Amino acid sequence: MNLLLLDTDDFVAEDQVVLRGRRLQHLHEVHQASAGDHVRVGQIDGLMGSGALLELTADQARLHVQLDQSPPAKLPLTLLLAMPRPKMFRRILQHCATLGVDELILLNSYRVEKSFWQTPFLQPANIRENLLLGLEQARDTRLPTVRIEKRFKPFVEDHLPALSSDILSLLAHPGSATACPRDVQQPTLLAIGPEGGWIPYEVEKLQAAGLQPVHLGDRILRVETAVTALIGRLF
Amino acid sequence: MNLLLLDTDDFVAEDQVVLRGRRLQHLHEVHQASAGDHVRVGQIDGLMGSGALLELTADQARLHVQLDQSPPAKLPLTLLLAMPRPKMFRRILQHCATLGVDELILLNSYRVEKSFWQTPFLQPANIRENLLLGLEQARDTRLPTVRIEKRFKPFVEDHLPALSSDILSLLAHPGSATACPRDVQQPTLLAIGPEGGWIPYEVEKLQAAGLQPVHLGDRILRVETAVTALIGRLF
User: Fold this and answer.
1) What is the DSSP letter of B158?
2) A228 vs B: CB within 8 A
3) Three-state SS at A14
4) Residue A132 to residues A129, B48, B129, Cα–Cα distance (Å)
5) How far is A35 from chain B (nearest CA, A)?
6) Is B4 on the interface with A (CB under 8 A)?
7) Contact check, Cβ <8 Å, B229/A231
8) Domains contained in chain A, CATH given
9) Strands B103-107, B145-149: parallel, antiparallel or unpaired by DSSP?
10) Ribosomal RNA small subunit methyltransferase E methyltransferase domain: from which residue to which, for each copy (chains A, B) (predicted)?
11) Over the range B192-214, which residues count as b (16 or more CB within 10 Å of their CB) and which as e?
12) Residue B230 host element (H or E)
């Protein structure tokens, strides 16, 4: 963890927090901190700054915090992702938060196994926990929003055209004629399919909703690798 | 697996292979193949093509193969990587093979824990297995070369200058003044440090060996994420 993230409940005064659990353990075991030390802190969805350890025991850490720095800018990116298998989903949540994705939309697709939607990683508390791990890594405080769309057709027909209008809207699709653009630095929507790809019906529907198919070369990447490689190329 | 990779030992005739073990199981369980089916095949470090299943039993698969297609081009990239922790190392081997890295050099660094060098994933058979998994994913046949350099100073002083001369040589280093270039498409050497980064002495030595420090923005990425994001940006 490169940043100690603070939640509203941690504050015992305007400029003081008390921590227990995972973050306390981390201060002891990884930072090997002691009273008087300073650590980087940030308030979830708020400012970042410095925390001075007033007290550090086996039971709790008490810090005086000064929050005066803005978190890094988010990428102007909405990632529309076919729901991945649970273990990969967990890592992708962390990657998205670390890389600065602004919004993640999880969509159904023909090749998404029904069981993927049953994973406990989709519970709000677990989504939040994995996003926080990604933010701690990146030194960011602002949580990406996560939206769950379990029905492909109503979402793509009724909601996607409004999301994709007036912004760069791309569909990562191996074999398409156009290479993925680079260094776009503009509001972008990027759709990435499941392992095995979108089926032709889905590609048609996504194109009808305004998305332009682009490829990333001859190699077939795993979804997780494609997410990071495409973001590295686009921004 | 998007490509069935064939080893020299698999060939029972010039155009015929017999498979057992993991690949046989994959044909049964994932492809749900039967005699007469065609699958994509490739010879390790050789050509790709098509395999016709002549026979498929619980014990073995016999295929007639026709190898007439070149594998995709490798990236002109030597990745110089501080030895990562074992679980991440295993995934990075797969990513490197999938993304088309030509050469991977594993280097020691002050922040590499000694225990990382003890991992069984460094045994040649295990390195090869994970690279093959990455090639199968990408549809490539050519194994990246992997070189192990357990001593930082002799390698960086005596061997690195020759490797870095006349090619684009970059040192990924958060906080440096220059942003990582994009779309370079030329022979490149890229050094990526351990979690926590290279220490100042190492940065000095790497710069003295001809590497130029570049950054990838304000966010601190995990090594695994940095490898893929940087490759996505460079090529």
Assistant:
1) I
2) yes
3) coil
4) 5, 43, 34
5) 23
6) no
7) yes
8) 4-69 (2.40.240.20), 77-234 (3.40.1280.10)
9) parallel
10) 73-232
11) bbbbebbeeebbebbeebbbbbb
12) helix B223-234
Residue A1 has pLDDT above 90, yes or no: no
A40 neighbors A30 (Cβ within 8 angstroms):
no
Q: Is B185 a residue whose pLDDT tops 90?
A: no
Check CB contact of B140 with chain A, cutoff 8 Å: yes
Q: Does B184 touch chain A (CB under 8 A)?
A: no
* 8-state DSSP, B71: P
B225 to A72: CB separation less than 8 angstroms, yes or no: no
> So what's the ipTM on this one?
0.95
Whether A28 contacts chain B with CB within 8 A: no
Query: How many Cβ atoms sit within 10 Å of the Cβ of residue B108?
Result: 21
Residue of A118, A119, A83, A78 whose CA lies nearest to A101? A78
SS3 of A176, please?
coil
Is A76 in the B-facing interface, judged by CB distances under 8 Å? no
Phi, psi torsion values for B210, nearest 5 degrees = 105, 5
Give the pLDDT mean for A65-83: 98
B223, B95 Cβ separation under 8 angstroms: no
Interchain contact, A220 vs B139, CB within 8 Å: yes
What confidence category does residue A77 fall into, taking pLDDT thresholds of 50, 70 and 90? very high
* Strand order across the beta sheet in which A103-107 lies: A145-149, A103-107, A77-82, A188-192, A168-172, A212-214
Q: Is the per-residue pLDDT at B163 higher than 90?
A: yes
Q: How many residues does chain A have?
A: 235
Mean pLDDT of chain A: 97
A228 sits in which H/E element: helix A223-234
Q: Which of B138, B182, B229 lies nearest to residue A219, judging by beta carbons?
A: B138
Distance CA B161, CA B159 (A): 6
In chain B, residues with a C-beta closer than 8 Å to the C-beta of A219 are 72, 98-100, 138-140
Nearest CA in chain B to A229: B232
Give the model confidence (pLDDT) of B8-21 as tens digits.
999 999 999 999 99
CB contacts of B140 in chain A (<8 Å) are: 219
Instruction: Please write the tens of the pLDDT for every residue from A120-131.
Output: 999 999 999 999
